[in-house]
Amino acid sequence: MDSPSASPSASEPVATPASPLSRPAFRWFLTGQAVSLLGSAMAPVALAFAVLDGSGGRPGDLGAVLAARMLPLLAFLLVGGATADRFRRRTVLTAAHLGSAAAQAAVAALLSTGHYALPSVVGLEVLGGICAAFTTPALRGLLPELVDTAALRPANALLSTVRNVAKVAGPSASGLLVAVAGSGPALALDAVSYAVAAGCLLRLPSTGRGPARRPGSVRVQLHAGWREFRRIRWLGPPTLAFFVVNLVQTGTWQILGPTLTERTAGRAVWGLVLSARGIGLLLSGAVLYRLAVGRLLALGQAAAALGSVPLLVLGWRLDAPWLVAAGFAAGLGVCLTGIAWDTSLQEHVPAHALSRVAAYGDLLSYAAIPVGQLCVGPLARAYGGFRVAAVAGAVAALAALLPLTSPAVRGLRHTRPAGDD
User: What's the predicted TM-score (pTM) here?
Assistant: First the structure.
């Protein structure tokens, strides 16, 4: 079931057998993603301040705007996967980026000119969410068309590093820009970043190792993708695990993390925990760029349990050094898990179904997040925040490790470049 590895062109210099940076197409792709991810990391801070300012401080407006992006993303994710498997992924990505640029530019124009209106902003965010639904599956499917199979792990490690740098630098840069120039220019910069990324995508070759497109309606394509998802035995256990982890961990950390940290170690420690987590994310990406392991998926699944450590530490009411160390461990684990999952999909899922299979995995995993977010508050009021954090951490750790009982997960081999044995 492994996809065949293509040999580098004789005219292209190859620094190492698995160096994705040796390919000009990947360099353009990475550049576009770096610009786009930085803009996307800046947008939430600017959008939050802009909506709160425009609405007179009504938090309900901000909640509606955030939901307006998330819900269509989930609703159209499978359609995005089917589209990316049916048409050229470069074309799908370019169109989605240009659509996101137009939507964000319109939001920036509304807010910069003082014409804030909740229905207009919600409508534009719906458009942005739909474009994001077409972006994510196509991105996963495009990478194997740009690099050899043996270079997928280091390529994903580079993309993860770029993404994590953007997450660390973007909010701070956005806060500074909002303070100096206002929310409108910060959102306009996000729109420009999407346009720049689209330009970089246009520099990719129009021909390449893309999959042969299969005929049939979207419904037929989705059914075929679901059959492929169920056929591949190692996909189910991690996907179910990610569903449970997102259900109990994501909302608990987002909602109870700052409050419980303040009560346990002081408000300033929350920033230290997030910084330590960012360092862990970056270090893990750097290590996996070089390190090859025989069973990458199994390692990534084991590392997923590290993401629950901060909740366990909070639940046990440990002090600041433990919290900071837990944040660092969680960063290591989350990054390693993401790289292992993306690489395993790209190595072992047939190219013609890759975007649909990835979309099914994402939808089944992410659908649990809003449910968990809605449940955390009532549970904390009923049972206490520290107890909820401890139980959520324990359940998440157990869920992350359970897929390792599956021989299909434990035995999946990672395609390593020559010289890494």
Answer: 0.85
